[in-house]
Write a structure and sequence with these properties.
Elements (H helix, E strand, L loop, with lengths): L4 E3 L2 H7 L6 E6 L5 H10 L5 E6 L19 H11 L3 E3 L3 H4 L20 H4 L3 H16 L3 E5 L3 H13 L5 E5 L19 H7 L1 H11 L5 H13 L4 E9 L15 E11 L2 E11 L2
Parallel strand pairs: 1-4, 2-3, 2-5, 3-4, 5-6
Antiparallel strand pairs: 7-8, 8-9
Helix pairs in contact: 6-7, 9-10
Amino acid sequence: MMLPVVARTRAELHDALSGAGKISLVPTMGALHGGHVQLLKHALPLGDTLVASIFVNPTQFALGEDFTTYPRTMDEDLRLCAEAGVSVVFAPTLETMYPHGIDGGVTIDPGPLGTILEGKTRPTHFRGVLTVVAKLFGLLEPDFAVFGEKDYQQLTLIRLMAQGLCMDTEVVGCPTVREADGLAMSSRNRFLDYRERKQAVALSRALDAGLAHAADGAESVLAAAREVIDGATGIDLDYLVLTDPFLGDLALEETAEGLAARLLIEGRVGATRLIDNAGLTLGS
């Protein structure tokens, strides 16, 4: 099995992508799991050359978050990339991504959408996410970039950035990949101990309960999901909301049959922050 070419600098990346044709990119922070593998498989047929980036981006972590303990598993990541058909892994140095330091240089303002939901408790998070993704788009000039729907707010913001800043990259969403018990796959799941892992599945069960009441309207969806969380142990809920597909307000009086919506949840289990979401159609 041939391992991908690993590029760490702009010059190495330029050499690695010489004659690459159309590029499909899957940006990651490493610690790859089955969800990432599905993203890679989704991206593989989109272009001529599949690139995965692996970079634990410091600017999307606030003080006291898990930047220093975030799992780093490069050897295993390269093996999974090879199995998924990745040709090039861009694993840049910090200096490559932030030549003026992480506190200097131009950044991307996510706007109002970056201040709600996850951005409400992590006010600097999406500025860091959009800035590093913009850098990746600038360095690789990918034709396609694939992101998971588990991070739905992130996906929505990256789409808006690419459109609003006239970037020639098509941002593609890939459905959430789940464990056998329904828990959304995440690199942070490995932080959960046995008891916390059992508790964490309440997040996806709450979504399932909400979706089961989609025909009854928005209030029933939220009530059913909330009932699961209220009956669970070990979940420190941050938010449980129902929005339109673009994360805008959903007027309850407008929940006519066939209205698309998104149910999103975030909570802490022990010290681990977990997010999940699901799309649904109200009144059907």
